């Protein structure tokens, strides 16, 4: 029941922000026209949607079987990261105030989801499908490469390694948030920071589409920077995780752009896929 209430609160905030964003940056008429032409646009990005769905499915499966493999490999890098950083996160948290904490909690929970979903809608509204295809491919690369790292490395965040120095500000100020985070991640999966990598990826694409959506570049840049800081301020990630997230974002952005440049978008569905609904 608590999980449902938390999810509904998240959905309400994000939907409200999406409605405002689409109305201001995309425009209702433009978006409505895109919805009317949805089939062509969805067909165009289909080769990038399918791998993303596979990766997300594998990531969900890894939440149950991944830890066993991770501990079998015994590559626990938590101590190494702590030896490199020491009490850096505690120093960052020493600047905490109630107002700043509320801001970063909001950004981490609600702003992050908005940051990932809005460009999907905005690029869907563009006449050509390449930008949306690139974004979806980049999401797939982020999740896929992140999953590999999560399986290879056991890595606990500051709130687990140095609980006496770093507070879990997210859970102490909003205890119900742990019901959501437990559904999508594990305490051992912190390197690299996917919150950071995906947010920076969105910011990179916001720069790529700055002519189409100049206002979005400003919003995406501010939110991406805020998310990266929030992961450390709230005691969830190390600085090392955030740096790794920046690197992952660069790789995912570059790989996605090159993939779409090489393979392009579909003009029509291939026969094997177009015939699926009619098969019995």
Describe this structure in words.
By secondary structure, the protein is mainly alpha-helical. 77% of the residues lie in helices and 0% in strands. The protein is built from 14 helices and no strands. α7 packs across α13. It is globular. The model has no long low-confidence stretch (mean pLDDT 89).
Question: Secondary-structure blueprint of this entry?
Answer:
Blueprint: H1 2-26, H2 28-36, H3 38-73, H4 78-85, H5 88-93, H6 98-124, H7 130-152, H8 158-161, H9 169-173, H10 177-184, H11 194-208, H12 214-233, H13 239-263, H14 271-274
Helix pairs in contact: 1-2, 1-6, 3-7, 6-7, 6-11, 6-12, 7-11, 7-13, 11-12, 11-13
Silhouette: globular
Percent of residues in helices comes to over 70%
Strand content: under 5%
If you average the pLDDT, what whole number results?
A: 89
- Intertermini distance: 39 Å
Q: Report the count of strand segments.
A: 0
- SSE series: HHHHHHHHHHHHHH
Q: Give the low-pLDDT segments.
A: none
Task: Give the number of helices.
Answer: 14
Structural class per helix/strand content?
Answer: mainly alpha
Largest sheet: none
- Oligomer state equals single chain
**Radius of gyration, Cα only, in angstroms?**
20 Å
């Amino acid at each position: 029941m608590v999980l449902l209430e938390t999810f509904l609160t998240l959905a309400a905030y994000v939907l409200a922000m999406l409605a405002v964003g689409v109305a201001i940056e995309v425009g209702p008429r433009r978006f409505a026209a895109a919805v009317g032409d949805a089939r062509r646009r969805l067909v165009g990005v289909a080769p990038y949607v399918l791998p993303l769905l596979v990766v997300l499915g594998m990531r969900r499966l890894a939440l149950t079987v991944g830890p066993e493999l991770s501990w079998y490999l015994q590559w626990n890098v938590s101590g190494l990261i702590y030896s490199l950083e020491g009490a850096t996160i505690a120093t960052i948290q020493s600047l905490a105030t109630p107002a700043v904490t509320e801001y970063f909690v909001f950004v981490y929970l609600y702003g992050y989801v908005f940051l990932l979903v809005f460009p999907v809608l905005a690029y869907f509204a563009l006449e050509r499908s390449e930008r949306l295809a690139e974004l979806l491919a980049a999401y797939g690369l982020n999740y896929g490469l992140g999953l590999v790292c999560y399986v290879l490395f056991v890595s606990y965040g500051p709130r687990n390694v140095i609980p006496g120095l770093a507070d879990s500000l997210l859970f102490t100020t909003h205890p119900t948030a742990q019901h959501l985070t437990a559904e999508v991640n594990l305490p051992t999966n912190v390197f690299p920071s996917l919150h950071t990598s995906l947010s920076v990826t969105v910011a990179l694409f916001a720069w790529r589409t700055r002519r189409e959506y100049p206002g979005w570049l400003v919003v995406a840049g501010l939110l991406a920077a805020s998310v990266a800081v929030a992961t450390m301020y709230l005691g969830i990630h190390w600085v090392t995780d955030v740096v790794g997230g920046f690197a992952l974002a660069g790789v995912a952005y570059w790989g996605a752009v090159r993939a779409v440049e090489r393979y392009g978008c579909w003009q029509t569905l291939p026969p094997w896929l177009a015939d699926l609904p009619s098969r019995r």
